[in-house]
Specification:
244 residues; mainly alpha; Glycerol uptake facilitator protein; 9 helices; globular
């Protein structure tokens, strides 16, 4: 179990450092910044690379909403849920700290309200309100679970799941960055909110509740599409697990 938790820690650490790091350090550079497209790709690439690197160890969740959705789908043992969540949040917070240290090496940088934070209303990149943010996070997380469960299901060519999942997360970001700055991952939101402060802390509850609801909804949708009984003995790998 310890190896699985270490893998989840590392995977979530890389997701937050790579995705949020791209947003904080590279997105806004004048003339050569990577913009929304680059940030979207960064998040997708972090998941894809870590799924290949450690997915065979822990299942490659890197996201409390994914772990919860897989549990609802019957593909993850519920007794492991809280330890996975703890490892994921710890990895995200550690990445937030590393990013905070790096970013503050630039003269005049302030992480307050400027740290790849998730939010709605005045904290939304596009000024979208609470209901828009709620619907976006539920729907995007639900579709993410459908992609994960479909890409790791029986009959799908082995070894390609991380690519589909990574591209799926990229697409999710392309759609929803203007609305909430895209969470679909409570650990990701927590890891930067603790260092960005302000409204990100006050609104953090939404970026736990909505993705968890979305994860459960996605699992239910997939179970209707693929009603085969799943075993909960091992977490599904997003790489080559034969029963995923």
């Amino acid at each position: 179990m310890s190896k699985k938790l270490i893998a989840e820690f590392i995977g979530t650490f890389w997701l937050v450092l790579g995705g949020c790091g791209a947003a904080v350090l590279a997105a806004g550079v004048p003339d050569v910044g990577i913009g929304f497209l680059g940030v979207s790709l960064a998040f997708g690439l972090t998941v894809m690379t870590m799924a290949y690197a450690v997915g065979n160890i822990s299942g490659g969740h890197f996201n409390p909403a994914v772990s919860f959705g897989l549990m609802v789908a019957g593909k993850f043992d519920g007794k492991d849920l809280l330890p996975y969540w703890a490892a994921q949040v710890a990895g995200a917070v550690t990445a937030g700290l590393v990013l905070w240290i790096i970013a503050h090496g630039q003269d005049g940088f302030s992480s307050a309200g400027n740290f790849a934070l998730n939010g709605y209303g005045s904290a939304s990149p596009g000024g979208y309100g609470f209901f828009s943010g709620l619907v976006t996070e539920i729907v995007m997380t639900a579709m993410f679970l459908v992609i994960i469960l479909g890409a790791t299901s029986k009959g799908v060519p082995v070894g390609f799941a991380p690519i589909a999942i990574g591209l799926g997360l990229t697409l999710i970001h392309l759609i929803s960055i203007p609305v909430t700055n895209t969470s679909v991952n409570p650990a990701r939101s927590t890891g930067v909110a603790l260092f960005g402060g302000g409204k990100a802390i006050l609104q953090l509850w939404l970026f736990w509740v909505a993705p968890l609801i979305g994860g459960a909804v996605g699992a239910v949708i997939w179970k209707m599409l693929e009603p085969e009984a799943y075993t909960a003995a091992e977490p599904p790998a997003v790489s080559d697990a034969p029963d995923a």
